[in-house]
Design brief:
The protein is of the alpha/beta class. The strands form 9 sheets. Strands 14, 15, 16, 17, 20, 23, 24 and 25 form an 8-stranded parallel β-sheet that branches. A 6-stranded antiparallel β-sheet has the order 9-8-5-4-1-12, covered by helices on one side. A 3-stranded antiparallel β-sheet has the order 13-27-26, with no helix packed on it. Helix content is about 30%, strand content about 20%.
Amino acid sequence: MLARQWRLSRLASLTAAVIAQSGLAAAQSAAVDIYQYASECVAVRDSSTGRYIGRDGTGYSMQSSIDGATPFRMQATALGSYLLYGPDGRMPEGTASSRVAPTRHAGPPADWKVEARGDKLRLTNVSTGGNLAVSWLGHVTQSRSPGYRWRFEPFHGCSTFPEAEVDAEGAPTLPEGPGAEVKGFLDAHVHVTAFEFLGGRFHCGRPWSPYGVMDALKDCPDHAPDGQFAVAENLLSYGTLTGTHSTNGWPKFDGWPKYFSLTHEGTYWKGIERAWRAGLRIMVADLVENRALCEIYFLKKNSCLDMDSLRLQARRLNELQDYIDAQFKGPGKGFFRIVKTPAEARAVIHEGKLAVVIGVETSQPFDCLYRDGVEDCSLERIDQGLQELWDLGVRSMFPVHKFDNAFGGTTMDSGFSGVLVNIGNKHMTGRWWRAQSCPEGEHDHSPTNLSGDNEQWYEFLRDHVAPLFDGDLPAYPPGPICNVRGLTHFGEHLINRMIDIGMIVETDHLSVKGRDLVLDILEARRYSGVITSHSWGDDTSRIRIQALGGIVSPYANAAPRYLSEWQHARETQPAGFFWGIGYGTDTNGLGSQPAPRPDAAENPVSYPYMSFDGSTTMSQNRWGQRLWDFNADGGSQYGLFPDWIEDMSHVGGHDVVDDLARGAEAYLQMWERARNSVP
């Protein structure tokens, strides 16, 4: 009996011990949150010895007390990866010889991936793969051992990592409750990922870099030293083959970005943050490609195939979301949220964040071609391609962009850019744009007449362009004219399939003939999911779009021109649909941004000013040494669009701002109607 009691007592003790050990193991296995350190000031402590990392004469070594520790600003490069930014701008860098040395260059050798096991951390160098370790002499080095030995402790004395400022003080106003009206702005057309289009070496700068503004906002190498070799920039922005500009990026920005510069980055992420803080609630980020211009341009590193480019850009947009999450201390915590349904968009906005809808504006969707009058496509390829885009998160799409394609005709371009695009059309399709007179009703843009009676272009085209096409140059009748190409049977199938799945149809860039036929289909199916997002349509089609419950979002021109389009849309808005209007910045999309008003000095934007809802104080925006002033700089970078709206109120009064602040809700209701119509 006593033996049995002893066994039971012993079993109970062992059980208690196991439970206690399990609890301890569970506590130890609760890993440290590795994302919490973004932007924090820390000392790095070796948990096995209690010593701290500090700078010495040759690199880094272990110090016996925290007084000798180097304070590091934890600059997130990605989710869970950091630069350890020291007080003098130097960072620990892993070298090929396993040393850890100080460097001022932010790049992969100075980038450390942090992983946690319980309350201990491992730091692995992104470049070498070595783990942060300590030699037997006490020097900080790299090793292939597991290396879970480090802790980050709060510290003081850190320097601030260089970054563009936001200059917005306040918090976004949240909707009043579930189902409440969203108040805020809609940018229905912006190209955040254009740094990868046209082969990836046409566009200078990018919206972010893991290694900060100094790396993200650099001019193109081919623009050095003074812009005289910047062929695309000089042609598109200045209309000449010759020209110069300062190539300084951070911290001067004395030569770019500018509102008329078409090859320099305009959507740096801090500018997007400033726009969000001032009231931007929905952004349609259009993935963009132009295969012909990509093939023609002599510098490239990426594929020119449309679908390859769209896949790459979709990946980059998600990487930007992750990068912003990293700055805000963890997955899902950043303000930039890619959404795939109107319900997701409402939920994001109710959290006070920016809903980002992925769109597509590309010249050869699904890599379907149109060559010498023949469409190289199939219904199966369209269906498969549309499903792939849907799976990538695309919810809005243009069937036609700058060129005639397998789906229909384009509205064409005028001026010098029209000459370049027409050359691209010839290169891609084997034909120049074909047009005929259409004196009555709506018409397309009139392309520059390239025949000998056009003295401005003829000599250049005769000597440099005509030989490329065996002397063949197009001649067009006096305007108004229309593209003879409308909507093909492939185009009809695409539009109907977009309706079937609830995708938003973008009608801009279609020829008048093609746009009429698209709207016929939409009207026959009573489909609201349609938008004109940046003024590449006409008044008749705009009114038809409004009658369907679609959205009007004029190009974000300078105040007088935008106000004219707003007034026309307001006057023709039918009853029965929620009224609100957006704008299409087309930033990074080879379109000029709003210029400063000529009379701005008489009624200027004054800093600081309050956001439309009074929640945020907007001060004059500073990037390094550059202080931006909308009255002089116009919309030179995306963070100046809040100032553009403020400028709009100076000219158009509060009515236009009120209607703009209803743009996000109007877009959501349009999208909900489109989704609800899906069988």
